[in-house]
Amino acid sequence: YIFFLTQIILVLLTLFTLPRVTTPLMISFILYLIFYPLVPKLNKLGLSKFLANLIIVVGLLFLVVYPTTKIIPLIKGDSERVEYYLPKSEFYIKKYYFKVKDFAKRKLNYEIGDKLLYDTLGASKEYLKTALLSLPSQLANILEWIFLVPLFLFFLLQDLHRFKRLFLRTVPNSIFERMYCLTHQFNKKLGDYIFAKFIEASILGVVITSALLILDVRFAFLFGTIAAIT
Description:
With 230 residues, the protein is mainly alpha-helical. It has 7 helices and no strands.
C-alpha cells in the first residue's frame, strides 16, 4: 500500500511541476480514450497496430491543423479590435444604467448608488485588458499543443497498454479487481462523455458563428469560439 500510494503521489507531483507538458498530455489522453476503439477495427482490416495508430494521428492532424491555422488569425484579429469598442460599450452601459436610476427615483423614490457601476466597469475593463493581452500567448500555446498532442497521442496509442500492465502489477491484491474494473469503466465513460461534449460544442460553435456572420455581427468568430468553449 505504501509503495502504491507513493508512486501515485510522485506521478501527480511530476505532472503538477511540468504544466507545459501536463496540459497537452491530458489532452492526448482524452483523445486516446476517444480514438482507441478505432484501433481494433482498423486491425480487422489487415492493418498493423503501428499503421493503424499512424493513420489515426495523421487523420486527426488533417482535421485539426488546417482549420485551426485558418481560424486563429481571425480570432486574434477580432480580439485586437475589441479594445477599440470598449469605450463605446462603456458609454451604452452608463447610458442605460442612468435611465434605470432615474426611473427608480421617479417611480419608486429610491436612489441607486453609482459605486457598484464604476466598480463593475473598472473590474470588467481590467479583466478584459488582461484577457486580451494574454490571448496571443494563449494562441501560441495552442499552436505548440498542435505539434505536441499528436506526438503524445501516437505514443499513448502505441504503448499505454504496457504502462497499464506495469501499473496494475503494483496494485495491492486486496483491491486489484475493484481497481481494474474502476479504471476500465472510468476510461470508457469519460471517453464517451468527452466525445459527446466535443461534438455538441463543435455544432454549437459552428451554428452560432454562422448565424452571427449571416447577421453581419462584429466579432462573429470570437463570439462563436467563446460559445463553443463555454
